[in-house]
Structures are given as structure tokens and as C-alpha cells.
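Box S1 | Example of a co-folding query
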Amino acid sequence: MKSPSSFDEGDFDFCGNNIRVSHLGVEMSLRSEIAKLRKEVRGELKKVSSLEELDTLWVRVLGRKGKLTSLTRELGRLSSTERPTVGKMVNELRQAFETSFAEKRRELERELRERKLEKETLDITLPGKLPQLGGKHLITQIIEEVIRIFIGLGYQVAEGPEVELDYYNFEALNTPPDHPARSLQDTFYIRRKGERPMAEDVLLRTHTSPVQVRVMEKTKPPIYIIAPGRAYRHDVPDPTHSPMFHQIEGLAVDRNITFGDLKGTLEVFAREMFGGERKVRLRPHFFPFTEPSAEVDVSCIICDGKGCRVCKYSGWLEILGAGMVDPNVLENVGYDTEEITGFAFGMGVERIAMLKYGVSDIRLFFENDVRFLKQF
Ligand code: PHE
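Box S1 (continued) | Returned holo structure for phenylalanine
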């Protein structure tokens, strides 16, 4: 407590007694307190910089124990003539405070909103983040291209299992038990669950030709199908060998199918696939499941038949094996070989990709190095 001076008002300690000095009159004292509070609050409001600070100040001024509230209580000490004027002043001050607090609140909220908006603004001048778009593997592209060509000729796409029975892979395809392809050195055989030694009737198909048999077993002629898929051979990887590779099988079975139909079909395919000027050449060959059989060449797609490194200066590139479906195969599926004939062909997809794009190592297709794959 302070010591009394002639100009002070309020509660003072006088020789241990609390006395109230009001020589200017309670009214005067309240009036000056009102003025003081008005000034004080105005100053503090200016300093407020957050909604939390505003709330604290509100409690301190207008709250139940706030300064204005205690001022209001002081009104009781006024005489009934003084009370209405001073009371009005206090009410006006409360209203003024309420208005300026509300104003301040709006201002703070607006600032907060603006700051938030600023933070969340999209900078449309920033370069966008391009999602990495994948592309189709060259092998897939070639398969799709071949399918497109044959669909145009009225063929349908067929598929068969990669884990195949010896019956479909060899036996039904007229391949004798002592054929070298059936040896453990050439074919991956599968051990059946719980069975030992290896049962030699389940294997990874060594070509897509078993699809021929599977389709013929289930369908009556006419059949015009193309069957793309993976095949497996027990080979050590090197620039021209991969234990897994892709083939596309073709099969046409109908009445009156001739060797001429085979050649015509392959010519159309070669021109569509490799360009209008391609010539096709058939060389006698042997496959157990076709008779006669041929290896099929196209005029070199690099040098146009003049001779270059890719065609080893022969002017020709071997692209597939083909032939007339052997009557034994047709009989195995119950067809009447007096009525029904057919041709079949099979091509290596990697080989075509390598010839078309000058890729010198088949292993590149399966190493999954995007720097290689991205080029196609
Ligand atoms: N299946 C043979 C191979 O993998 C290719 C072929 C298919 C030959 C159809 C003739 C007829 O070599």
C-alpha cells in the first residue's frame, strides 16, 4: 500500500488502519479510473498479436474478476445522483471495449486466414512433377504387332500352359521317345510334389507347339489361331541363347489348306511386319510334327538382300520354322486326314526383335536395364 498524498485517492494504510481517502470525491476517482482503463486497454489491444493473447486480455478486462467488472462494482459506492452518469460511462466503456475487442478479433482472424492462404497457394508457374510413365517391353510390342497382323487375317489368339505334359509337348506332336529334344540336357523336367525320382511326364514347354494340340483337341476345324507365349530350354545363357524365351505359334486347319496357303500367309506377314519389299524363301527342313517342313527366310531387313553383316552376306534372314501339319498329329486329335489339312509355323520373338533392332545379345532383353529397354 502507498502512503497518502494530497492528490492520491484510494485505500491507504494509516497507522495500521485501512482508510479510504477520497478528497476529490468517489465520482471523480471513478471517472479517472474509467479514463485510465480506457487508455490502458487501448494500448494493450494494440500490442495483442494472437487470438490467445486477445482472450487473456478479455478475461483480464471484461471477465468475472476483470478490471471493468470491479469498476462496475464500485458504482455502489456512489450516491444516487452520481450513479446514473458514471454508470452510463461504465456501460459505454463496456460497449466500446466489446466493439474494439470484436474488431481486433476479426482483424486477427483475417490475418490468420491470409497467412494460411499464402502458405497453401499453388505456384502455377512451378514446373510440374511428371509421373514416370512406363513403356511396353520390346518383346511385348513385337508380340502385339504380330497379333495385330494375324487378327487382320481372321486369326484368333490362343494360349496354353507353360508347365506342360510330355504328351502335348512331344508325344502328340509326333516326336519319338528317342528324339534328342526330349533329353534331360535339352528340357527342364518338373519333379511332381512328393514324387521321386523325377517323373518325366511334366516339363516346361520347349516350344509353343503344344498349344496346337490343345486347341485342336477342343475345337473342330476350321481353326485359325496364333499362340504367343514363353518357352524354356535347358541352355546356358550366351548372346544367342536364353533358357527362357518367347515364341509365337500359328496354326491353320481347314479343308483344302495347301502349302501355297502357307507361303502366301507368310508373305503377307513378312511384308506387314518388315515392309512392303520383303521377299520370302522356304528351305526344306525337318520337324517331327510337320511334313513337309521348311525354314523360312525373309530378304534381309537391313540391307534389302544386298548382303551385310546382319545377314552374314547371304541377303536372307531366317525368321521361322513352318510346314504342313503332319497327318499323325491330326490323327492324334481325331481329325479325318482325308478331309482336313493344315499348316503351322513358329517364330522366335527375341530373334525377330534382334534382327529388327540390331540387338546383338539376347540377354539384354531380360536384364531389365531401363537404359536399354527405354530405347524401344
Ligand atoms: N516348334 C518349332 C520350334 O520350336 C517351330 C515350328 C512350329 C516349326 C510350327 C514348324 C511348325 O523350333
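The chain has two domains: 26-119, 138-373. Residues 207, 209, 249, 287, 290, 321-323, 344-346 surround phenylalanine (CB under 6 Å).
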